[in-house]
Amino acid sequence: MREPAASPGPGPAAHATGLTAAEAAARLARDGPNEITRGEGRSPLRVLLSQFNSPLIWLLFAASAISGVLGEVADTIAIGTILVLNAVIGFLQEYRAEKAILALRSITAPRARVVRDGHSAILPAQQVVEGDLLILEAGDVVAADARLVRSHLLTTNEAPLTGESAPVEKGLPPAAGDAALADRTDTVFLGTAIATGSASAVVLNTGMRTELGKIAHLLSSVEDPQTPLQKRLTHLSRLLLVLALGVVAAVAALGLWHGNPPLEVLLSSISLAVAAVPEGLPAMVTIALAIGVQRMARRKALVRRLQAVETLGTTTVICTDKTGTLTTGVMEVRALWGPDPRRLLTVGAGCCDAELDANDRGVGDPTEVAILRAAAAQGIFRGELEAQAPRVEELPFDSTRKRMSIWRADGQLYVKGAVDLLVPLCRGGTQGALEENSRMAARALRVLGVAVGRTPREEDLELLGLIGIADPPRPEAIEAVAAARRAGVQTVMITGDHPTTAAAIAREMGILQPGEPVEERVHARVTAEEKVGIVRRWKERGQVVAMTGDGVNDAPALREAHIGIAMGQTGSEVSREASDLVLGDDNFATIVAAIREGRGIYDNIQKSLLYLLHGNAGELILMFAASVAGLPLPLLPLHILWVNLVTDGLPALALVLDPPAKDLLDRPPRRPDAPFLSRGEWLRILLIGLLEAGVILAAYVEALPHGVAAARSVAFTTLVFAELLRAFAMRSPTKVFFEVGVFSNLLLLGVVGISLALQLALHTFPVTRELFQLGPLDARLFFEAFLLGLIPVSALEVSKLVRRLLRRRP
C-alpha cells in the first residue's frame, strides 16, 4: 500500500482549515483510536477444554483408561494421541475468527493526509477523528468513512467491501440517505483504494463505526456452526454410551449370578466396554478427511478445516459470487452492432487510454482492455493508430458527459460513451440504436456507443455502432450448475452487480429457470449484513449452506455458512482467513467436484462405521448369550482387544480409502436432519450381529467337549474370519463384491491377507498360544472356521440381491 505523498503546502484544501489540534485531541479521547478492534472472546484455556465436551470423547477416555488397566499400553497411547490431536485441531479452528479480524486490520491505511489548523499533515491513521478533512490522491488507501466535499475524476476500488467488480465513479451531488452501500457515490470508505483522480472528504465515522468496522463486529459475533458430521457423531456416541453401559451391566450381573469369579467378571465386563466403543472411529474419520484433503488439493481446492471435506458432501445450497467464480473475471467484447465492425473497432481502440503489453496483459480500465483485445484479434493495434494519427487534443471521460473524445492528427474526432447520451449528438444512421442498446443491456452487456466527427467539437457525429462488453460465464461453470441441480444442490447468486445484470447472468448460467422467482435465486447489491441474513434464512429452512466470496464484505457470511469457500486468486486475505476451503482456480466447477469428493468421503466413513458396529454387535451378543446360558465366556479380554485392533481397526481404515462411486452426483443430497444410521441400517446391524454371534456360539458349544481352551480357539478364529470376510461386503450397500471390483481397493486385500497371517501365527507359535490361552488348531478346524466365517458375509451379499429384486417389482 502506498503512503500518501507529503504536500509542500495546504494543497487542494487550502480553502478549509480543518480541525484544530485541540478539537482533534478531544474527539480522539471521546471516540477512541481509528482502528479495527478484536473484541472480547473466550480464553484459550476455555476454548481448549471445550474440545473435550463430547460423549464420544468421554467414551474414548474410558476406553483408554480401561486399556491401561488391562496392560494394553499401545492401545492407551494410540487412543490418547487421537484425543490430543483432535483437541489441537479443534482449538486452532476456533481461532479462525481472530485471524480473520487481524487480516481485516491489515488492509486499513497505515497513514493518512489530513488538514489540521489550516495545514496539510501526514498522521498515523489511528489518529484520524470524526470531522477531519482527508486529502486523497490516486493510490491512497482511505483511512476512514468520509463524505466528499471536492472531487476530480475520482474512482475507487471497492471490490473488497462491496463486491463491485469495476472501479466506482465518485462525486457530488450527495446520494440519497437510504442509498445502498454500492450506490453512495458521494462517500469513500475505510480500506478502499483510490483508483484515479483526487478528492477531499470530511470524515463521518472512524474505527468500529465504519462499514469495515461493522464487518469486523459481524466476524467476531458469528460462531462456527456445528457440521452435520459433528452432529451425527455426537448423537451416535450418546446412543452407544447408553447401549454399552446397559450391556456391560447385564453381563456383569449375569456372571456374578452364575457364580463366576469376580475378577474374571470384572475383566470381561471391561473388555466388553472396550468392544462396545468403536475407538478407531476418530482416527478413521480423521484419515478419511485427510484423504479427502489430498484428493481436493489435486482439484485445486485447498481445505483449511478437515470437517469441511464431509460438510461439502452434505451441501444442499451454494450461495456463490458471480465475478471470477461463475464468470471468467475478464471483460471481453461479446457483441458488435453496426454496418462496418472493423471500422467500429478501429475507432473504439483509438478512443482508449488502456494498453496491452507484449503478453496480452491489460493495463487500465477493464472495459477498454476488452475493446483493445477484440481489435487486436482483427489486426488492429492501438500503438499503430497512435503512430499513424497522434493525439492532438483529448476530452477525458467524466460522470456528467459519460463519454470521452480524442481529436487526432488525421482530422477525426474519436468518441465513445453511453449510448443514450451519444445518439442525440449524431446525425442520421441512428435508427434502431436505442432499441439495440436495450436488447444488449437485457443480456447483461455493458454497452458503449462509438462515433466519429470531422471537427474537434462533439457535434454532428456519425454513429458507427455499439459494442457490448461483459464478463462471460465460464463454460465449465454452466455445466457445473447443471450438475449441481441434478445432484439436488441449489445454486444462489449473491453479487455486488446491478440486479438486471445479475438476473441476466443467472438465466444464462442456468441458475434461474423459467418460472422461478428471481428473489429466490438472485441477490444483487447486498451488504455484508444482508449476506449473513441470506445464509441464516437458508439455514433456518434446514439447508446445509456453502458460501463463496472474495471480498472483505463476504467474510462474515463465510463464517456464518456451514462451509465458507474463498477465492485463492482474487480473494482478500480476510476472506481466506474466514473460510474453510480456498479455491486455487476461483472456479465454480471446482466446488461441484469437491461436493462429489465430500459425498464419497461420507460414504466411506459410513461404511467403515457400519463395519465396526456389525462386529461390535456380534461380540456383545455372543458374550451376552453365553452369560445367559451360564457358559464359560467364549472370548477373553485379550481376544476382544486383538479383534478390535487387528481385525476391526485395520480393515475399517482400508475402507475409508475406497474410490468414490460413479453415481454420487446422480443422487439427491442426504437430508441435513437425517441420522448417521437409518432404522434399516440399525436393523441390519442387529440381524448380522445375531447371525455372527449364533454361528460363533454354535461352533464354540460344539467344541466345548474338547476343553474350554480348544473351544475358545475355535470361537476366536471363527470371529476373526467372519470379521475379515465381511469387510468385502461392506464396500457397497447395493452392489455385491464382484460388481464393486475385486482389485479396486488393493489396500483392503493386503490388510485382510496380513491379518489372516497374524491370526495363523497366534496358533502356530507356542509363545503366542500361551499368551492368548489358545489350544492348537489343525488344518481341518482352521478350514471349518473359514467356512463358518463365510456365513455372515454371504447373508449380507444375498440380502443386497433380494433388495434389488424387490425394488424392481411393480
Walk me through the structure:
- With 810 residues, the chain is an alpha+beta fold.
- The chain is built from 30 helices and 22 strands.
- Strands 1, 2, 3, 4, 5, 6 and 7 form a 7-stranded antiparallel sheet that branches. The chain has a 7-stranded mixed sheet with strand order 8-22-21-20-9-18-19, with helices on both faces. A 6-stranded antiparallel sheet has the order 10-17-16-15-14-13.
- Strand 21 (563-567), helix 22 (573-577) and strand 22 form a beta-alpha-beta unit.
- The longest helix is centred in the C-terminal third of the chain and has 42 residues, at 588-629.
- It starts with 20 loop residues before the first helix and ends with a helix.
- Residues 1-15 have low confidence and may be disordered.
Short description:
The chain has 810 residues and is an alpha+beta fold. It has 30 helices and 22 strands. The radius of gyration is 35 Å and the shape is elongated.
Oligomer: single chain
Give the N-terminus to C-terminus distance in angstroms.
70 Å
Helix and strand content put the structural class at alpha+beta
Low-confidence runs of at least 5 consecutive residues = 1-15
DSSP strand tally:
22
**Largest sheet geometry:** 7 strands, antiparallel
Measured as a percent range, the helix fraction is 40-55%
Global morphology: elongated
Give the radius of gyration. 35 Å
- β content, as a range? 5-15%
Mean pLDDT: 82
Count of individual helical segments: 30
Topology:
Elements (H helix, E strand, L loop, with lengths): L20 H11 L12 H7 L4 H15 L3 H22 L1 H11 L4 E6 L2 E6 L8 E5 L7 E13 L1 H4 L5 E2 L17 E2 L4 E13 L5 H11 L6 H30 L4 H15 L4 H18 L2 E3 L3 H8 L2 E4 L11 E6 L3 H10 L4 E2 L5 E2 L2 H12 L4 H7 L2 E5 L7 E6 L4 E5 L1 H4 L10 H10 L3 E8 L8 E9 L4 H12 L3 E6 L3 H11 L8 H4 E3 L3 H13 L4 E5 L5 H6 L2 E5 L5 H5 L3 E3 L4 H42 L7 H19 L23 H25 L4 H22 L7 H4 L5 H19 L1 H6 L7 H30 L2
Parallel strand pairs: 9-18, 9-20, 18-19, 20-21, 21-22
Antiparallel strand pairs: 1-2, 1-3, 3-7, 4-5, 4-6, 4-7, 8-22, 10-17, 11-12, 13-14, 14-15, 15-16, 16-17
Helix pairs in contact: 2-4, 3-4, 3-9, 5-7, 8-9, 8-23, 9-24, 10-23, 11-23, 12-13, 17-23, 23-24, 23-25, 24-26, 24-28, 25-26, 25-30, 26-28, 26-30
